[in-house]
Design goal:
The protein is α+β, with helices and mostly antiparallel strands. It has helices at 3-94, 98-112, 131-141, 175-196, and strands at residues 119-123, 150-156, 163-166, 169-172. The radius of gyration is 46 Å and the shape is rod-shaped.
């Protein structure tokens, strides 16, 4: 073989080998690009899922906050109405005609008496509960040692109603105390309503 043919053969073999290397390189590059495209597609899908989940969580958080704000406003309005109702009720109770007031006090006192030996403490300005009223209550309690109530010489600033004292035990039946107890019960119900939603 002459030198030209040898060079041609070497060049031809080199070209064939270069073509093989080029083709293998292109196939490898195409496979790598396909793998990267697939990976990118998967990352994009995961990003969309995470973004949707984050948006849903943010939406749920905003809705929960809005619901809580509405519930707080609703509760504040209920409390405002209750304030008005209790203030008006207290005024009306204090302004009851004497006969109606005495009927109410009779009912409350008959329910509140425990031993029948209590002292009845009234407000500094009370004029409708007097010894005659106490005597009538004693008659209703009966002679079996339950009808021994006494009007106390001590007076307190309690507004309408009375306090029954037996030694160190005080049973407060002032309308402000009874009203406060009722109000506490209502506020507990309102709180349950607020936090159950």
């Amino acid at each position: 073989m002459d030198a030209e043919k040898v060079i041609e053969k070497i060049l031809s073999d080199a070209n064939i080998e270069a073509e093989k290397i080029k083709q293998a390189s292109e196939e490898k590059e195409a496979a790598e690009q396909a793998r990267l495209d697939e990976q990118l597609k998967e990352y994009k899908a995961q990003t969309e899922i995470l973004a949707r989940k984050a948006a849903e969580e943010e939406k749920a958080h905003l809705l929960a906050t809005a619901r809580m704000d509405i519930a707080k406003q609703f509760l504040a309005e209920k409390i405002r109405i209750i304030d008005e109702v209790f203030a008006q009720a207290q005024r009306q109770l204090q302004d009851l005609p004497d006969e109606d007031y005495r009927k109410l006090m009779t009912k409350l006192m008959l329910q509140a008496v425990e031993t029948g030996n209590e002292e009845v403490i009234i407000d500094n300005n009370e004029t409708r509960i007097d010894q005659d009223f106490i005597n009538k209550i004693n008659k209703q309690l009966g002679p079996d040692n339950k009808g021994n109530l006494k009007l106390s010489g001590q007076r307190r600033n309690i507004g309408a109603g009375f306090i029954l004292r037996d030694g160190k035990i005080n049973n407060n039946a002032s309308l402000s105390t009874l009203s406060a107890q009722l109000r506490t019960q209502l506020e507990i119900e309102l709180a349950k309503e607020l936090f159950s939603n």
